[in-house]
Amino acid sequence: MKEKAFAFLEQYVTKQDTLVVGVSGGVDSMVLLSIMVELRKKIPYLLVCAHVNHNVRKESKKEQKFVEEWCTKHDVLFETMTIASYGDDNFHNEARHVRYQYFADVIQKYQAKFLVTAHHGDDLMETILMRLVRGSTLRGYAGFSEVVSIDHYQILRPLIFFTKEEITTYARAYQIPFMEDRSNYKDKYTRNRYRKYVLPFLKQEDPHVHEKFYKFHTMMVEADRYLEKETAKAFQKVYHDQKLWIPSFLKLDHLLQVRVIYSLLEQIYEDDLMFISDRHVKMIEDCIRSRKANAYLYLPNLVKVVKCYDTLYIETAPKEIASYEIAFEDYAELPNGKHLERVAESDLNDNTICRLSRSDVVFPLYIRTRKHGDKMALKGSGHKKIKDIFIDCKIPPEERELWPIVVDSQDRVLWIPGLKKSKFNKQKNETCDIIIKYY
């Protein structure tokens, strides 16, 4: 393992470079840190360990102290930070953002050339599988890469070629100490379920399946690079004066049409592209092919897509909104200034939280404004008009027009966020597939 990791790193690392390695204290990052220390014997470079104390488990302080003491013993510079608090229930997304922002700060402090992380072959398999299930782009289906350029530095992932089992075996063989995070075994986290149930099955079918996934990753990346060049050419032909010219667009091969739409959305969303899924792209396609001369739809973050005869353009800050319909995946910023977000868990049971099961409702979900004759099915009491619910809750008429209503793909009203839940809502002690928070 060490020799293969060395061979990878030696393609990039030279004498006098500064490298920052992200270390949690778990087996993956401790093996990586150990390998990085060994590499200094061949290539004299400055090694900085960056540790983030997520401050959510009682073991967090012990892990920080453990990593710091190891670094002191092996002459590695140690940097750390503690996350004081979290803004919402989406812990993993927020923690990842804070973690990488901190790594960027450490890199800037030391003028480092590389950030090295301990992502391995099992991580790659989990990422690919989750994106295949959720839906993504060709590049998204490839998972993450072993080398990623970020502004003035690069991310290197030398363990991408190895499985978790290989890393653990290496740690035991070379007596590398590590801490174990028990939260990695909790079923409430999506990635953990893939890790515990899906990967063992695949490995039983083929012990070298991680190599097949890496080959798949490589093929996807190569295909994406080629298509990126073709997409750039197509984009120049169909997009002028901040408008997409529909007749020219429709002459493109469908694959290029989809990629042109994603390219357009990348310009609009930039770092927030995670809010966009293939469902949103399909909505734009349907809008383009609509027989209506004029049409529009809303995407996350109040982005408005407008079709006007032979052109399509995007408004990022629409001035006036009369109605909207948004396909909901994980997050939506609403025209009334509120937000809907999918969360991993919540102790709340009021009208700001809704729990739904795929056995009762048809996904995907949508957020829209009310329609004439809308009714909600209530538990044990038949149906009630949305209009009457607004009146009972004393919602002013001017607020009713933009108030969000969550419906399923059969247009059944599931929830009026902040006001009323339908019979489809699950209690805290019942099984559900999705929890949505309104704030």
Structural overview:
There is one protein chain. The chain has three domains: 2-215, 3-Layer(aba) Sandwich (Rossmann fold); 241-315, Uridine Diphospho-n-acetylenolpyruvylglucosamine Reductase, domain 3 (2-Layer Sandwich), CATH 3.30.465.60; 325-438, Phenylalanyl-tRNA Synthetase, Chain B, domain 3. The protein has helices spanning 2-9, 27-39, 60-73, 91-110, 121-134, 138-141, 164-173, 190-205, 209-238, 246-250, 254-269, 278-289, 386-392, 397-400, and strands at residues 18-22, 46-53, 77-82, 114-116, 147-150, 153-156, 239-240, 243-245, 294-299, 303-308, 311-315, 325-328, 331-333, 339-343, 353-356, 365-368, 375-377, 383-385, 405-407, 413-416, 420-421, 434-438. α5 crosses α9. The chain is 39% helix and 21% strand. It has 439 residues and is of the alpha+beta class. β7 and β8 form a beta hairpin. The strands form five sheets. It has a six-stranded mixed sheet, with helices on both faces.
